[in-house]
UniProtKB/TrEMBL annotation:
<keyword id="KW-0677">Repeat</keyword>
<dbReference type="GO" id="GO:0036064">
    <property type="term" value="C:ciliary basal body"/>
</dbReference>
<dbReference type="InterPro" id="IPR035969">
    <property type="entry name" value="Rab-GAP_TBC_sf"/>
</dbReference>
<feature type="region of interest" description="Disordered">
    <location>
        <begin position="353"/>
        <end position="375"/>
    </location>
</feature>
<protein>
    <recommendedName>
        <fullName>TBC1 domain family member 31</fullName>
    </recommendedName>
</protein>
<dbReference type="Pfam" id="PF00566">
    <property type="entry name" value="RabGAP-TBC"/>
</dbReference>
<dbReference type="GO" id="GO:0034451">
    <property type="term" value="C:centriolar satellite"/>
</dbReference>
<dbReference type="InterPro" id="IPR001680">
    <property type="entry name" value="WD40_rpt"/>
</dbReference>
<feature type="domain" description="Rab-GAP TBC">
    <location>
        <begin position="400"/>
        <end position="575"/>
    </location>
</feature>
<dbReference type="InterPro" id="IPR000195">
    <property type="entry name" value="Rab-GAP-TBC_dom"/>
</dbReference>
<keyword id="KW-0853">WD repeat</keyword>
<keyword id="KW-0963">Cytoplasm</keyword>
<dbReference type="InterPro" id="IPR036322">
    <property type="entry name" value="WD40_repeat_dom_sf"/>
</dbReference>
<keyword id="KW-0206">Cytoskeleton</keyword>
<dbReference type="InterPro" id="IPR051570">
    <property type="entry name" value="TBC1_cilium_biogenesis"/>
</dbReference>
<comment type="function">
    <text>Molecular adapter which is involved in cilium biogenesis. Part of a functional complex including OFD1 a centriolar protein involved in cilium assembly. Could regulate the cAMP-dependent phosphorylation of OFD1, and its subsequent ubiquitination by PJA2 which ultimately leads to its proteasomal degradation.</text>
</comment>
<dbReference type="InterPro" id="IPR015943">
    <property type="entry name" value="WD40/YVTN_repeat-like_dom_sf"/>
</dbReference>
Length: 819
């Protein structure tokens, strides 16, 4: 009955929430469920469990009445699903957006719940007791582990069947079971104080741990890199175990910290710890949450809510948030960074108090040397943290770099040289004429942002003239301006490095589209999703629509601000070909929406708007493409390796474009030329040819008219002894048409020789009729040359007659040979 009601549910009502900004205790939100009874009295329903979804920053909490509350911490909304029944465990399904695995006490089932619609898609049955633990394997996402105290079941999610079952006996029930972070091992903690480790692939036992100094084992926890395991129980002992050497690393006595047992433990990942988490959260027997630094073995902070003690807690996989379920049933949601800031403040205050109580007889030089040494240590630690390999490990674990340190991290990844002298020389050249009135083409409300955009584009245009005429460049660099405008030098060097490395082959055919890049993208799409490419072909959409539009805007039109930052975190942390794989990945991930669009206009608009996308799936697909694309079509085959800007008094020259490109010629034209007077190269060539032809034709026509009166006998003689074609003309038009044909043939000859010299030459070689026409034209040319001089003597007339006779003999011979 309840399941049927959920299936016909059309939607859910969502409500807004407001988070506390910089709370003193780190609690950004408190969740409680209070209802009014029939008698009008308020009754509070207690929460039992909860879980996080880091990819979308969502939190799911279940209460004892069978209600599930979904909190969207990114969009600041929450909603509720009812009628599910009491829940014993929750878990967000990886790689499936908005799907929550819910373990219910009704028939001990595990249901797949769509948190947006409230509908149930699948149900897993087979447990004989309520499920307490749900875990997924990171190396095999199709494998699901569910466990109750009496049994554990491994499910194959491709067909929703179980392929392995672990049964226990009385006295050796399961206390906790989970996959290691890498998914290589399956680890279980039993009630008989033993820890069993199985190889996930074969499910063979590889190790059994029986701590001699610990009884009543309760919990195990792993660091994010899976190399260390913490073991705790109801005895005042904490053991750190190495998964590499299978040996204990540390044994910590909890009596020192005024609590005698650990009810629950979990690591809290921190930025720049490389997955070797050093902060361990311990829920002690005093119902307070203690945060311990395992390196110094000190308690850096203790969380003690004022209303009641803590019953249970959970940490998000990236460590950004954690929740504490109190004994009275409320849920406190903490921001880890706020909690760590509070802890650091208290440590600093305690250190300052110790310094104030200590002796102040140290000399000034000693204080200066201590300050210098501490500064050197900080610089050394920063260099270690900013190592590219280390940063990439952090990125793979957390999915993104912290906003606070992003500019510093990008600077380290791109290895920018900080050439202040070279940058100042570009600034001194002022605003480039091409971008003087850029505000007329773009609507930018912030005057500061407009000023920074102008300055960046001008520096790029002064650095390389090509960037003064590329129309897409302002839209490409604008998101970088928004992120890095506080440091103009870093902004310029970052964009310049991007153009050199991640925009290779973009300007190979400038100002035309980059044919080579688009061909590579089309080959990759054909390799990994030929059905989508077929759809593009049927609609008539080319790579200039589904790929070039994304590249020219640097993904800023299709991704939100946070998604854009995360994507470029990954682009800067990988090889230059990563950006092309991201374009193909975006198309493949969005293919369900794309295939519903059956017109060119709809697809054109699709790639100019922000569309919902699962960023985790998008990035995962990009890494799959860059690792599984064949070498013969992989972009790295055609791309150069990463090359940073050179350090010095000037930047290296950008040479990735054709030197004789049309856009560069247009950029060098005089600024005073009116737009209507500007022509393309083809127009200019055509006009110059027409001008030359008309002038030469006019000159020859004038010469013919001038010589006609003196040499009419020559033309009459030509009319009598010309070719058969000329002889067929009527006698009354003989002289007139001879003059017109001569002029006409001369003009055609010049047109043919100027515009098509090769073709005309071949025609003269293989056509006898053309030879006769050429002889007539040559005769006219000789006559024109002779008549330009004034005939003053009989000797000159004799010479003319000899020339004419010789030419006519040749013409007659050619006619005979043709016949």
């Amino acid at each position: 009955m309840e399941q049927g009601k959920r299936s016909v549910q059309k939607g859910v009502d969502k409500f807004d929430i407001k988070l506390k900004s910089r709370p003193k205790d780190g609690v950004i939100l408190q969740l409680h469920h209070t209802v009014k009874g029939s008698n009008g009295e308020s009754r509070r329903i207690r929460f039992s469990t909860g879980t996080f979804d880091d990819s979308q920053e969502k939190l799911a909490c279940a209460d004892n009445a069978g209600n599930i509350f979904i909190l969207d911490l990114s969009n600041l909304q929450f909603w509720k699903h009812t009628g599910i029944g009491p829940c014993s465990a929750l878990y967000f399904v990886p790689n499936k957006i908005d799907i929550l695995a819910v373990a219910t006490t009704n028939n001990n089932e595990i249901i797949y719940l769509d948190i947006e619609s409230g509908k149930t898609s699948h149900t897993l049955t087979g447990h004989t007791a309520p499920v307490k633990y749900i875990s997924y394997s990171n190396n095999k996402t199709s494998n699901l582990l569910t466990a109750s105290p009496v049994e554990a079941i491994l499910w194959e999610l491709s067909n929703y069947t179980k392929y392995f079952t672990l049964n226990t006996y009385l006295g050796a029930q399961i206390q906790q079971i989970m996959f290691t972070p890498a998914g290589e091992y399956l680890v279980a903690c039993f009630q008989n104080d033993t820890i069993q480790i199985w190889k996930h692939e074969s499910m063979k036992s590889v190790k059994q741990i029986i701590p001699s100094d610990m009884k009543h084992l309760k919990n195990i926890a792993f660091t994010m890199n899976g190399r260390a395991m913490a073991i705790a129980g109801l005895t005042p002992t904490l053991i750190l175990f190495s998964m590499d050497t299978w040996k204990a690393l540390k044994c910590i006595d909890l009596y020192k910290y005024n609590f005698s047992a650990a009810q629950q433990i979990s690591f809290i990942p921190q930025l720049f710890d490389g997955g070797a988490n050093k902060i361990l959260a311990i829920l002690g027997s005093d119902c307070m949450l203690h945060l311990m630094d395992l390196e110094s073995q000190t308690i850096i902070h203790t969380i003690k809510p004022e209303t009641s003690g803590i019953r249970w807690f959970a940490v998000s996989p990236t460590g950004k948030y954690f929740i504490c379920i109190l004994k009275q049933g409320e849920v406190n949601i903490y921001n880890s960074s706020y909690v760590m800031d509070v802890a650091q403040t208290r440590i600093t205050e305690s250190v300052n108090k110790e310094k104030a109580c200590s002796s102040n007889h140290k000399s000034a030089p000693q204080e200066h040397s201590q300050h210098s040494s501490s500064k050197a240590e900080v610089v050394h630690k920063m260099r270690i943290c900013m190592d590219s390999a280390r940063l990439r490990r952090i990125l793979m674990q957390y999915g993104e770099y912290p906003d606070k340190f992003r500019p510093m991290i990008w600077r380290s990844l791109l290895n920018t040289p900080r050439n202040k002298t070279a940058y100042t020389a570009l600034i001194d050249k002022g605003i480039h004429p091409a971008y003087k009135d850029i505000e007329n083409n773009f609507t930018i409300h912030s005057s500061i942002t407009l000023k920074n955009l102008k300055r960046l584009l001008s520096c790029l245009a002064h650095w390389c003239p090509l960037f003064g005429v590329m129309k897409f460049l302002p839209g490409f660099v604008f998101p970088f301006v928004k992120v890095l405008q506080k440091d103009p030098l870093l902004l310029f060097e970052c964009v310049a490095t991007v153009l050199i490395n991640y925009c290779q082959l973009w300007f190979e055919y400038a100002p035309f589209p980059p044919i080579s890049v688009l061909a590579m993208l089309e080959n990759i799409l054909a390799e990994h999703d030929h059905h989508l490419l077929k759809h593009y072909c049927e609609v008539g959409v080319t790579s200039q629509t589904y790929a070039l539009k994304i590249l020219e805007t640097a993904f800023s039109e299709v991704l939100t601000c946070s998604e854009w930052l995360i994507l470029w975190d990954h682009i800067f942390s990988n090889e230059p070909a990563f950006i092309l794989m991201s374009v193909v990945s975006y198309n493949i991930v969005q293919k369900n929406a794309i295939k519903r669009l059956n017109s060119h206009e709809k697809l054109e608009n699709f790639f100019h708007t922000q569309n919902p996308i699962c960023k985790k799936t998008f990035l995962k697909k990009t890494y799959v493409l860059i690792n599984e694309t064949p070498d013969d079509i992989h972009p790295r085959r055609f791309y150069n390796s990463f090359m940073s800007l050179e350090k010095g008094v000037c930047y290296q020259q950008f040479t990735g474009y054709p030197k004789a490109t049309i856009c560069l010629k247009l950029a060098k034209e005089d600024k005073t030329i009116v737009k209507s007077d500007r022509y393309t190269l083809r127009d200019l060539t055509t006009k110059s040819q027409e001008k030359e032809i008309n002038e030469r034709a006019k000159t020859h026509e004038t010469c013919v008219k001038k010589s006609h009166s003196d040499d009419n006998f020559l033309l009459d003689y030509l009319a009598e002894s010309s070719s058969n074609k000329l002889a067929e003309m009527p006698e009354r038009q003989h002289n007139k048409q001879n003059k017109g044909d001569c002029t006409k043939n001369t003009k055609e000859y010049m047109i043919e020789n100027i515009q098509y010299p090769v073709i005309s030459q071949r025609r003269r070689t293989y056509s006898g009729k053309s030879n006769r026409k050429d002889n007539a034209i040559n005769l006219c040319k000789h006559i024109s040359k002779l008549k330009t001089r004034k005939v003053v003597s009989a000797k000159q007339n004799c010479n003319i007659e000899k020339v004419v006779e010789k030419l006519m003999i040749n013409s007659t011979n050619s006619d005979v040979s043709d016949s």
